[in-house]
């Protein structure tokens, strides 16, 4: 068996000062967008990179309003979430050239929601062959680009 290192994960695993509240509520209230990986702020929602991505470029579109009930989202919130998703996909196409995308909303813990009390839409860029033996046999994902580099590439390409 070979060892595979993912040193960026240990800070989260060992952290004793994990946020006690909702990160999707706390991060937009702070004036630290780059540190919190917020790429864009809309009127009703924002775009943020996933700190623990499934693939390079994995981001989320999140309404500002705290709710776990997708059905409670207003038409305006849903429209903006999907409009920002479309813009994010175009930015990814221009910058990291994925061959496909997964878009999804995990509602509830049993559905895989990591933050189950605040609705958010995942956008995961995909490439042919990115699902290989690593996650299946080794429970390991290979992320070839740093979050800081991904943030910079996306931020520089986001429409003004």
Automatic annotation (TrEMBL):
It comes from the Bacteria. Pfam families: HIT. A motif (Histidine triad motif) lies at residues 118-122. The keyword Ribonucleoprotein does not apply. Substrate binds at residues 50, 112-115, 122. Keywords: Nucleotide-binding, Nucleotidyltransferase, Transferase. The active site is at 120 (tele-amp-histidine intermediate). Transmembrane segments: none annotated. GO terms for molecular function: nucleotide binding; nucleotidyltransferase activity. Residues 23-133 form the HIT domain. This is ATP adenylyltransferase.
């Amino acid at each position: 068996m070979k060892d595979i290192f993912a040193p960026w994960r240990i800070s989260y695993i060992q952290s004793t000062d994990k946020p006690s509240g909702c990160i999707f509520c706390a991060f937009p209230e702070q004036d630290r967008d780059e540190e919190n990986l917020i790429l864009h702020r809309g009127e009703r929602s924002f775009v943020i990179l996933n700190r623990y991505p499934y693939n390079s470029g994995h981001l989320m579109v999140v309404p500002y309003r705290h709710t776990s009930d997708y059905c409670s989202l207003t038409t305006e919130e849903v429209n903006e979430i999907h409009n920002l998703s479309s813009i994010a996909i175009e930015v990814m196409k221009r910058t990291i050239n994925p061959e496909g995308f997964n878009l999804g909303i995990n509602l509830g813990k049993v559905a895989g929601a990591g933050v189950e009390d605040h609705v958010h839409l995942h956008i995961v860029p995909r490439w042919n062959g990115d699902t290989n033996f690593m996650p299946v046999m080794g429970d390991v994902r290979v992320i070839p680009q740093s979050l800081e580099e991904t943030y910079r590439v996306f931020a520089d390409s986001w429409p003004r």
